[in-house]
Write a structure and sequence with these properties.
The structure is a single chain. This protein is mainly beta. Helices cover 4% and strands 41% of the residues. The chain has one helix at 164-170; strands spanning 10-16, 29-37, 47-49, 60-64, 76-81, 89-98, 114-119, 122-127, 137-145, 151-160. Strands 4-5-1-7-8 form a 5-stranded antiparallel sheet, with no helix packed on it. Strands 3-2-6-9-10 form a 5-stranded antiparallel sheet, with helices on one face. The chain is globular.
């Protein structure tokens, strides 16, 4: 899927979930983006961007971060300026992971969780994680650069049973 002849340029990935009950430890989720070079589009990421980092060139940034889900609507937001990303990158994979600090938590343990991927006012993806309810992490979107250097969007809902560290290493693997 492509968002026009020019390709996808600038997208936001938004994440929401309800806070855990008052007597439970907080649910902590993160958006993670991983970039891949032309010589290894399914290998190790060149770099990842998450709550405590940004891309070296400033093209991928975490604009809003939550460790509890508290707030209204989408409480975590990442912006990807694909049209400014260096030509050496041909693939970007975005995922969501649940921290496993206090016992195993899956998407089925969350309420009102969801992810939204938008380009401007165009909704590319809205998902509630029902397809990956038994997973602790999931990819949600893949962006690939075509021969004309335009970026294409692909929905990529794929569940994993990993913590944040392991997930960043496996999220870009071939399906």
């Amino acid at each position: 899927m492509n968002s026009g002849k020019q390709g996808v340029k600038k997208v936001e990935v938004r994440l929401k979930w309800d806070p855990s009950p008052w007597n439970q430890p907080p649910h902590h989720l993160d958006i993670i983006a991983a970039t891949y070079a032309a010589d290894a589009p399914y290998g190790e990421p060149v770099y990842t961007v998450h709550f405590d980092s940004r891309s070296p060139d400033g093209t991928i940034n975490m604009n809003r971060h939550s460790q509890t889900g508290q707030g209204f609507g989408y409480v975590e937001v990442m912006t990807l300026e694909l049209d400014r990303l260096a030509r050496s990158f041909v693939r970007v994979v975005v995922g969501v992971v649940i921290h496993q600090n206090r016992g195993r938590k899956t998407f089925s343990d969350l309420t009102n969780a969801g992810v939204l991927v938008v380009e401007g006012y165009e909704e590319l993806l809205q998902d509630d994680f029902a397809r990956v309810f038994a997973s602790t992490a999931t990819t949600v979107a893949e962006f690939t650069r075509d021969a004309s250097a335009a970026w294409d969007y692909h929905e990529m809902i794929r569940g994993f049973d990993s913590d944040p560290v392991v997930f960043t290493a496996e999220m870009g693997s071939a399906p």
